[in-house]
Amino acid sequence: MKRPRVAWALVVMAVSGGALAATWPHAREAGAMLAAQDDPAELSDIQVNSALRKSQKIIADQIEAALAVHDAGLAMSFVDLARAKNVALPDDLLARVDEAVVENNSTSHFAKRFAVGLVTGNADDAGSLSGTVAGDLFVFGDIRDVVRESKHMITGEDTDRLVLGLATAGLAVTAATYVTVGGVAPVRAGLTLVKDARKVGRLGEGLTEWAGRSARDVVDAPMLQNAVASSATTSPRETVSAIRAAFNAEKAGALVRMAKDVGRISEKAGTRGALDTLKIAEGPEDVARAARLAETSGGKTRALIKLLGRGALLLAAGAFDLSLWVFGAVFALLSFLVSIKATTERMTQKWIDHGKRRRLRRELAAVAVVSPAANG
User: Fold this and answer.
1) pTM of the full structure
2) 236 or 21, which is more confident?
3) Exposed/middle/buried for 38, CB within 10 Å: 0-12, 13-18, 19+?
4) CA distance 252 to 239
């Protein structure tokens, strides 16, 4: 009876040991991700390490893809990530990235993009953003957007209330920018970027819905309509003042905070880094997380967002699914320890029983030898 019991304990120990070996790597990673769920930089680092363990070629492939679409900033971001992770890259690939960055940063290219941003009001890189912000700082960019959307409102056409709210808030913030000599420049840049992302369809659906609700109460529509309707007969300064008067500052706190976070991302990760964030963000919490990520990761931010998507900001897998790996490993560990204990106890008992039987046999043999002698 005892031999099968020992064999069964050995089988359980082997099975639980195998289960522990299989689940431990996943459980360790899941545990680390759960612990880092409130730290976007640490969370991204864990996931990138996991991806690189599977294939380090992924970074070179991403650089090639970025160069193919003439996105030197993204290519350089992946080079920064490769250096941080000690991933070797081909010399010719690095040379091509350097050439693309030099071309992208050339004076002629910057001037051209500045002019595009100034005239069109659309930004997708540092040059065009500088032009767009310059236009907004001189208020004609925001006035153009306010007047256009207000006229849509007056005529009953579809009105983009988000662009309207952002432009109106921008006029108010621009005044503060001049007063503080650039002290609120990140907010100004953030409002411009959100507005531009909305115009070109690069604002995530969830963030669009939230920002639209927030912007709706920022503008006093009747007051704004009156200001725009009378703009033809009043001076530009009076028009701007009237538009600013239609801005409800007390209801713009959440929108301005998000714009400030977008500005922080732009300062640390570049214009396209901010636009990449706006595309994947589902709400202001995601933007705030991205700002924290950008402050820690700097130039690597774009690469992390490109590689991990929204998973760079928060847990891509559910906490429950990750917890299952942890609990599975804990259960396997407990089973393994219990099986070791049971196997040890049973083998020890078997050894003790075997020793007792040996002593008993010796005693019986001794008795058998003594008994004939005594009878003789």
Assistant:
1) 0.68
2) 21
3) exposed
4) 21
